[in-house]
Design goal:
Shape: globular
Strand order of the largest sheet: 3-4-7-9-8
Strand content: 15-25%
CATH class: Alpha Beta
CATH architecture: 4-Layer Sandwich
Structural class: alpha/beta
Helix content: 25-40%
CATH superfamily: Metallo-dependent phosphatases
Distance between the termini: 37 Å
Largest sheet: 5 strands, mixed
């Protein structure tokens, strides 16, 4: 069995289309979307339309929760723009999505950690950046989730980790935003260092799950130009370079 995992699209439709085309070449059995789908100064409504038509298993991320629960005046710039351009039909779709999903008997999907969409499951904040967390810390954040494979997103860091019992934890990286700055729980940056779109393919063969991490080129210059037009130079730099 082969499963493609995508995450953190952030309304970047050209990146999504490039990733979907690459997934087609992988001949997977299933594709799953791990959340943070629309929020960004790019193509949120168009991205929603594409994914609604595609109808793949999809979970909410923290940005979906924020779009559905915060008042507009309490939203950050990214969610506020998205809130203003998506329709009630899009909001209804977001509201129908689960927070986590047991995709198969072996595969569990969450956005951050199994019980919190804001937790960095595989990373620790050190200084102004992030590093791989210790296995004990990862196991604690799993909070008893014993699935053979746990898929997570949120940090945009493409990473595959196998814990001592053999449990495989995979973050496919971000389809649409290769770098960002955050102030929660304290100021830090996450930077992929290149502008490509990212995803992962999980394969079950000989009784063992493995992960292949993929990077896909796309027209990131177009996405960066649109971010600039919408007065988001921070996004434009991240999209062009993979750095904040």
């Amino acid at each position: 069995m082969k499963i493609a995992a995508i995450s953190d699209i952030h309304g970047n439709l050209p990146a999504l289309e490039a990733v979907l085309a690459d997934i087609e070449r992988q001949h997977v059995d299933q594709t799953i979307n791990l959340g943070d789908i629309l929020s960004g100064p790019l193509w949120p409504a168009e991205t929603a339309d594409r994914l609604m038509a595609l109808d793949i298993p999809t979970i909410k991320g923290n940005h979906e929760r924020q779009l559905l629960t915060l008042s507009e005046n309490k939203m950050g710039l990214t969610d506020r723009f998205t809130h203003q351009v998506i329709s009630e039909r899009h909001r209804a779709w977001l509201g129908s999505l689960p927070e986590t999903l047991q995709l198969t008997e072996d595969v569990f999907a969450c956005h951050g950690a199994p019980d919190n969409d804001l937790v960095y499951l595989l990373e620790e904040i050190v200084g102004e950046g992030v590093v791989l967390a210790e296995q004990d810390a990862i196991a604690e954040r799993l909070n008893g989730c014993a699935a053979a494979v746990v898929l997570c997103g949120h940090t945009h860091v493409q990473r595959s980790v196998r814990l001592d019992p053999g449990q495989l934890i995979v973050n496919p990286g971000s389809v649409g935003l290769p770098a960002y700055e955050d102030r929660v729980p304290r100021p830090h940056k996450v930077e992929a260092g290149t502008p490509e779109a990212r995803y992962a393919v999980l394969e079950h063969k000989g009784g063992v799950w493995s992960a292949a991490l993929h990077s896909v080129d796309y027209d990131w210059r177009r996405a960066a130009s649109l971010a600039e037009e919408r007065d988001r130079p921070d996004w434009a730099r991240a999209l062009r370079t993979g750095y904040c």
